[in-house]
């Protein structure tokens, strides 16, 4: 698989599932687990808590020497592929915060509620549509919760007030936790070079870990050694500490708000869908077209349900469009029977439908 991915998808970062790898450790290193109770804790720190590749390398060597694992072939094989599974090597690559195959596995579990190995292909299509409908419904429930309720704010900063209006509820909860915890840190400027500044960010308690945040005042950008933004797409507490305490930031910097985590992420319609050969299919597959339309209908229905006037306006428009679609279907069949253009290629009809629909709205 690795060779195929490198050839077919050369610009893609191929990762190995961290969870599956760690599940193999007790099996291959049972003698170490049984003999040394502290081994698991130290190894967990080496894998999960090292920030840079140098930190990982140093702790890895220390553990191998301490527990007599220098000549272990299985560990050496894992080490040779460390760039594919060790978090310290992958923090600068955007992975939406994922380090395991949890996303695909949860989708597999989701579809198992609708299809089985004995499901016929003809039944699979219908069950697949039901599964998509259920998925969309759950997604819309979350959208409604985001738009109709308001979480409790934990700070008096205006940036939190703005973030709750921009982010989805899940994204906001992550941002809020980072913003709240940035108050536990102190930032000290350690270097200035032109418009660039380097800050040392350290916790106020007993934790002695130090992070470094470099800020470019010209481009209003910042990079932290934890690389949370690069990996997850949400600002870390260390950068927020510098922004809030040194710059008195009142609003979210636009370049640090990823559209995919915002309330309006789905407002832009996706018109073209590439097929398996990389060509654009323009949504010719009926299931994909239906899925795309249902996403739009959910949003339209939500707006139309806000008042009786909006509901009646939408209902009138939908009735008219429904009749026009039936007309398109009838005229399309007549054209096909007469050997004329297909139902998707009738300019006169398309112009008539667009004109009528515009007048309705």
From TrEMBL:
One of its GO terms (molecular function) is zinc ion binding. Residues 211-247 form the SWIM-type domain. The keyword Zinc-finger applies. Keywords: Metal-binding, Nucleus, Zinc, Zinc-finger. One of its GO terms (biological process) is regulation of DNA-templated transcription. It is found in: Nucleus. GO terms for cellular component: nucleus. The keyword Zinc-finger applies. Belongs to the FHY3/FAR1 family. Putative transcription activator involved in regulating light control of development. This is Protein FAR1-RELATED SEQUENCE.
